[in-house]
Amino acid sequence: MAACCSGGCSSTKPPVDKTYRRILWIALVVNAGMFGIELFSGWAAGSVSLLADAVDFFGDAANYAVSLFVLGLAPIWRSRTALIKGLTMGGYGLFILGAAGWNLASGTVPEHVTMGKIGVLALLANLLVAALLFAYRNGDSNMRSVWLCTRNDAIGNVAVMLAAVGVLGTGSGWPDIVVACIMGLLGLSAARTVIKQARKEMKTAAAPVGAQPRTATIELKRR
């Protein structure tokens, strides 16, 4: 008991917040559903920003699933998982920028009505998840990555709606492409934040373990 009170047990079996687990399940279902809706709508409307948002929803659904899996594991494993998620977020950002370049080259003009309607629906879904996750926004790197994904989604949804208005007003696909680029850069920025925090946590968690054998070796040499 003394070891547990002093923090000795927390690294091997951290407490699991049941409320947070339920929130992750809700977020997983919402994001998986929105992925299907936006994927179909994005192809139908010819909108790269909607497709970008669909890929984002898919990535978030996978992130929530992974977060549920590692929730009861030691902090070092949660940090390692956050590092993988950060790299995935960075890959998503690069994919979006590439898709935007493809649409620019092809000269596609998306259907603005579909963009606007699906953008509103996606925003409502993300605001629900963001409200549920707000209390956990300053947790460890794993919790922070989940919060950042949801925050970026809500920003992206507003941007998609603005892009729809821009497409309507200009009759071109430029607003859609600009929004897709912004979403890609947001993904890269969030990835950098998560990776930086995850690596810091991994270094802190691993330092005591790695230091002990070295100290023991020095003592043996002295004797």
Shape, per Cα inertia axes: elongated
Spatial extent as radius of gyration = 21 Å
State the order of secondary-structure elements, H for helix, E for strand: HHHHHHH
CATH class, please? Mainly Alpha
CATH fold type: Alpha-lytic protease prodomain-like
CATH 4th-level superfamily:
Cation efflux protein transmembrane domain
Measured distance between first and last alpha carbons: 35 Å
Average pLDDT rating: 76
Beta-strand proportion: under 5%
Q: Could you name the ranges where pLDDT drops below 50 across 5 or more consecutive residues? A: 1-15, 212-223
**How many distinct folded domains?**
1
Number of helix segments? 7
Give the % helix: over 70%
The counted number of beta strands is 0
Largest sheet: none
Alpha-beta classification: mainly alpha
Identify the notable features of this structure and list them briefly.
transmembrane, disordered C terminus, 84% helix, elongated, Alpha-lytic protease prodomain-like, disordered N terminus, mainly alpha, Cation transporter, 0% strand, 223 residues
Précis, in short:
The protein has 223 residues and is an all-alpha fold.
Structural write-up:
With 223 residues, this protein is mainly α. The chain has a single domain (16-203), classed as Cation efflux protein transmembrane domain (Alpha-lytic protease prodomain-like, Up-down Bundle), CATH 1.20.1510.10. The chain is built from seven helices and no strands. It has helices spanning 2-5, 18-45, 48-70, 75-106, 112-133, 141-170, 174-222. The chain is elongated. GO terms for molecular function: monoatomic cation transmembrane transporter activity. InterPro entries: Cation_efflux_TM, Cation_efflux_TMD_sf. Residues 24-200 form the Cation efflux protein transmembrane domain. One of its GO terms (cellular component) is membrane.
